[in-house]
Amino acid sequence: MMGDLNAIRAAARLLEAGQLVAIPTETVYGLAADAGNPEAVAAIFAAKGRPSNHPVIVHVARDADLSRWASDIPAEARTLIDAFWPGPLTLILARAGHVPAAVTGGQDSVGLRCPSHPVAQALLKEFRGGQGGLAAPSANRFGRVSPTTAQHVIDEFGAPGEGPLAAVLDGGQSDIGIESTIVDLTRLATRGPVLLRPGGISAAQIEQVLGRALAAPDMAAPRVSGSLDAHYAPRTPVALAGSGELASVANRLAQKGRRAALMVWSDSAPASSAAQTLRLPADPEGYAHALYAGLRAMDAQGADLILVEQPPGALAWQGVNDRLRRAAFDSSGVLAQLLA
Ligand code: TXA
Ligand code: MG
Question: Is 186 a residue whose pLDDT tops 50?
C-alpha cells in the first residue's frame, strides 16, 4: 500500500480498530498499534517475539497534548522539543497515570517521539483526531536488523493479511536510517539528562541546545532493549576490522576457503576479487542511511561472515558505531574460528 491520503486514512481506521500497521518514519519503519489499547500493544510484542517487559515508544502528532502521556514536562523537555521535534529524538518522561503498562513495560516512565516523516505526520493527524498515540517499536523481529523500506518489513512479517500486519504504509527509504536518539529526563535532579541511545541527533547537538553535558546510562537507567548488547544483528556473523588490516583479513579468509561479504567505506579498502564488496558512503549521515539495507543485502549473500571496515571513531559516528558494535556482539570469536 502506498502512503497516499486514502491509504493513510484506511490505516488510521485499522489502528483505531486495534490492528497492527507498519509505518514509515525518518529513522526506521515502525510496527504501530494504538497506544491506548493494551490488547493492540500486546499484539506488537507477540508479532516481534519481544519480551513484554520492554517499553515501546509512543509516537504523537505535532500539536498533541503531551500531558495525556507524561505527568511532568520539565523545561529541558520543552527546550529539546522546540529544537528537535518533529524529528529523530525520543524523550523519556514520567508517565501519566492511565498510560497502559503494556506501553511502559511496567515502568513509571514513558518514551515520547514526534516523527518528521510526512506519512507518519499525516497518519498521526488522522488517527484519533490527532490526539492519540501510536506505540511503535522498529518493525523487525526481536534482536534483528531494523527495516528502512516497506519491502524489509514485508520480508520480516509477510504481506498484509498473510501475517500479523493489517497494512504496510510505504513511505520510501527512511532518510536517517538508524533509530532515534533517546534522552532520559526522568532523573534531572540527581543525574541530569542521560543519553540512553545515540542516534539521528548527535549528543553534541543536544548538549549545545541544553547548555549542559549528557550523562551516560548507569545501572539505574530504565531498560532499553536496544541497549542489550546483542541487537540489530543479521543472521550471518559480523566482524569489524580496521582499514589497515581489512585486506589481509579478507585474503586470509579467502585462503581458508571462507566466503566473506565485505562492507567498506574508505578509499584504502581493498577491491578484493575473492569477496562480495559493498561500498557505503564515507560520511556518517550517508553511512547511517545505507547501513541497515547494506547489512540485509550482505546477509542475503549466504557468506560465512560479514566483514565490516571499522568506521572512524569521531563523535559524529557514535550512532553508527553503536549499531555496528551490537551487530557484531554475538559473533565475537567467529573471525578467529574461521581463520583457524
Ligand atoms: O527511531 C525510533 O525510535 C524507532 C521508530 C519506529 O520510531 N523506534 C524504535 O523502537 O527504535 P524500538 O522499540 O525498537 O526501540 C525503542 C527503545 C527501546 O530500546 C525501548 O526500551 C526504549 O526505546 N524505551 C521506550 N520507552 C521507554 C521508557 N519508558 N524508558 C526507557 N526506555 C524506553
Ligand atoms: Mg528496535
Answer: yes
Give the ligand 1 atom nearest the CA of 225: 19
Q: Residue 221 has what pLDDT?
A: 66
Classify the C-alpha dihedral 82-86-88-93 as positive or negative: positive
HSE (side-chain half, CA atoms, 13 Å) at 239: 22
Write down the pTM of the prediction.
0.95
Q: What is the pLDDT of residue 73?
A: 96
Best mutation site among 26, 52, 84, 90 for ligand 1, i.e. most ligand atoms within 8 A of its Cβ?
A: 90
Kind of pairing between the strands at 238-241 and 260-264: unpaired
Using alpha carbons, select from 167, 170, 136, 162 the residue that is nearest to residue 40: 136
The protein residue whose alpha carbon is closest to atom 6 in ligand 1 is 30
Task: Indicate the residue type of 123.
Answer: L
Give the pLDDT score at 219: 66
Q: Which atom of ligand 1 is nearest to the CA of 109?
A: 29
Long-range CB contact pairs, 239-242, < 8 A, 24+: 239/305, 239/306, 239/307, 239/308, 239/328, 239/331, 239/334, 239/335, 240/308, 240/309, 240/310, 240/324, 240/325, 240/328, 241/307, 241/308, 241/309, 241/310, 241/335, 242/309, 242/310
**CB of 19 sitting under 6 A from ligand 1:** no
Q: What is the pLDDT of residue 69?
A: 97
Q: How close is the Cα of 185 to the center of ligand 1, in Å?
A: 14
DSSP label at residue 193: S
pLDDT in tens, 298-309: 999 999 999 999
Given a contact cutoff of 8 angstroms between Cβ atoms, the answer to whether 306 and 237 are in contact is yes
The CB of 57 under 6 Å from ligand 1? The reply is yes
Interval between CA 140 and ligand 2 midpoint (Å): 7
149-167 per-position pLDDT tens digit:
999 999 999 999 999 999 9
Looking at all shown ligands, the one closest to residue 109's CA atom is 1
The residues placing their C-beta within 5 Å of ligand 2, an ion, are 138
